Amino acid sequence: MRRFSGPVVPAVLFAIVTRLALAFAVWMTGRALPRLDFYPAQLPDSFIPNHPSLDGWARWDAAHYVALARFGYSTENPSNGDGLGFLPLFPLLMRALVRISGANPTDAAYAVAGILIANLCFVIAVALLAKLAGRILSGHTAVYPVMLLCLMPFSFFLNAAYSESLFLVIVLSALLLALDGKWLGAGAIGALASLTRLAGLGLAPALLWGAWKEGVRGWRLIATGVLPLGGFVAYSVYTAVWHDDPVAYFTAQQNWGGWDEHVRFYAELFVRSPGEALQGDPRHLVIVLNLMLALVCLALLPLVWKRLPPAIAMFTVVTVVAHLIVTWVSLGRYLLPAVGVYLVLGAMVASPRWSGWGRDALFAVLAILLATMTMLFSRGFWIV
After folding, report:
1. In this structure, are residues 170 and 200 in contact, taking their beta carbons and an 8 Å threshold?
2. d(CA 371, CA 28)
3. pLDDT score of 91
4. 282 CB burial (10 A radius; 0-12, 13-18, 19+)
5. CA dist., res. 261 & res. 321, Å (int)
6. What pLDDT, in 10s, does the model give residues 190-233?
7. Judging by beta carbons within 10 Å of its beta carbon (0-12, 13-18, 19+), is residue 215 exposed, middle or buried?
8. Which is nearest to 163 in space by CA: 62, 290, 59?
9. Is a pLDDT exceeding 90 seen at residue 268?
């Protein structure tokens, strides 16, 4: 039992309890409230309507992953750009699970596969984060980063049929290997991250910086920085050969808008018409919450840089700053892998000055926001 001692067991138990509560909320919401109508240009995402406990976890981008698992990058794929705006590792795992299980390869089967993979990866990610926190923080303090991760308002994406929890598992694995000085292994794992989400490219400067600070030089240093790029480079080679477009990922992503729609529009809205942002289209409230979380993360970055190991600090800074600059849409879930924020904030809330009502109030507010976002997402509200 020694390998399971420390913060891992209580962290996993806390994660399971919170997810059971969310699962109950999704089930009740699915039984009591009708699903919202599809938004314009939204890919239909009602795969398991007779099972509300599952159906609510496969919304929005889950439909693109289901389409990829079923049709691949082909003209049969109903996603914009034949699905080329989504990287392949997660849908490949969905397809593999359906084949191994022997289930009929239907949309529902792929949706369930995505949910199962996401939840398995979520438990693994929680255990890895607890292990990482136990290496950096002391005593009971190591559990608090996991509590914060589990209660973040958009952390339900770690349990939906999205690639978020798979990506987090890969990132945490790479950072743990980096802590052990296994830089080439960390870089190789990082290649899987950039085959899952574009944000995996952030591991390249993170591991390069960490290795440099640890005195790694020569070809090992170069390989450490280059390896995390491998997954996305391989995907780009594939799209160049089979689709005649080495930047097909970015070409397809343009279908969902660019910086003007995802940042400038909201910046102008909040400056010129703050009342509209708060009392107009309710979707704007999601962007407001995204920004609030991003600003908290941004404020914590000096402490992250000062207190944490270089690779973790660099990856956290790149994750927060890059996403804040590029898009305010989906920002809440894009910040979920900002590991350093949980470590620093966890150490803060574990301190005596946060004991009592202050810490309880923080966790209560986060839990309310998380439950609200989860139920809205499960009914098809615009939380992407």
Report:
1. yes
2. 12
3. 98
4. exposed
5. 18
6. 999 999 999 999 999 999 999 999 999 999 999 999 999 999 99
7. exposed
8. 62
9. yes
Asked whether the beta carbons of 173 and 128 are under 8 A apart, the reply is: yes
Dist. CA 207–CA 204, nearest whole Å: 6
Q: How many residues does the chain have?
A: 384
Calculate ∠ Cα 21-92-324, nearest 5°: 65
Q: How far apart are CA 174 and CA 128, in angstroms?
A: 10
- Measure the CA–CA gap between 56 and 60, rounded to whole angstroms: 10
- Tokens describing residue 10: 């209580």
94 contacts 63 by C-beta, under 8 angstroms = no
Query: DSSP of 230-249, one letter per residue?
Result: HHHHHHHHHHHHHHS-TTHH
Digit-coded pLDDT (tens) for 324-341 = 999 999 999 999 999 999
At 40-60, the pLDDT tens digits run: 889 999 999 999 899 999 999
Kindly state the percentage of the chain with pLDDT values over 90.
91
- C-alpha to C-alpha distance for 345 and 320, rounded to whole angstroms: 15
When computed from its CA atoms, the radius of gyration of the chain, rounded to whole angstroms, is 20
- Contact residues for 156 (Cβ-Cβ < 8 A; gap 6+): 22, 370, 373, 374, 377
Spell out a b/e string for 284-309, using b for 16 or more CB atoms within 10 Å of the CB, else e: bebbebbbebbeebbebbebbbeebb
